Amino acid sequence: MKTLLIIYHTMTGGTQQMAEAAADAARAQSGVAVKLQRASETSPDDVLAADGYLFATPENLAAMSGLMKDFFDRCYYAALDRLNGRPYAAMICAGSDGQNALRQVERIATGWRLNSVAPGLIVCTHAQTPERILAPKTIGADDLERCAELGAGLAAGLALGVF
Q: CA neighbours within 13 Å on the CB side: how many for 27?
């Protein structure tokens, strides 16, 4: 059985909602085990044991979150040259545009020689004031459906051996 590892960080709940929607839809696929883990609790062994990845991070100050970066810092060299060709996708919960956070995840995934199997998914909350940035987020049904489709697609591709 293949394993899809969904790694996320959240401060205000938006990214967690996105990751959970993807995980729930992925779990509905047969032939794949789904692990949903916070970035701070994910080790190199977790990364090495998985067959595919979904990275989910908020955009903080036009970049991926610090704890997501910490995950990559802790796991990068332990997994380097040991993940070549494995599939991945990325989701960004953005306050403005999310492009730089996505670019950062893509560069790290390129260094790991992962295979991008879907365009990066960016959900924009338009939180631009300190109050809205720090407030708990509620991700809309349409955006959660997009996250679910990404999770289901990754899981199906793994289960069928497409990736």
A: 10
Report yes or no: 97 and 124 within 8 Å, Cβ to Cβ: yes
Closest C-alpha among 49, 28, 46 to residue 37:
46
Rounded mean pLDDT, 20-32: 97
| Angle of CA points 57, 62, 63, to nearest 5° | 45
Q: Where are the domains of the chain?
A: 2-160
Residue 1 has a pLDDT of: 94
- C-alpha dihedral over 133, 135, 137, 138, to 10 degrees? -130
pTM of model > 0.90: yes
Q: What's the CATH number of domain 2-160, 3.40.50.300, 3.40.50.720, 3.40.50.360, 3.20.20.140?
A: 3.40.50.360
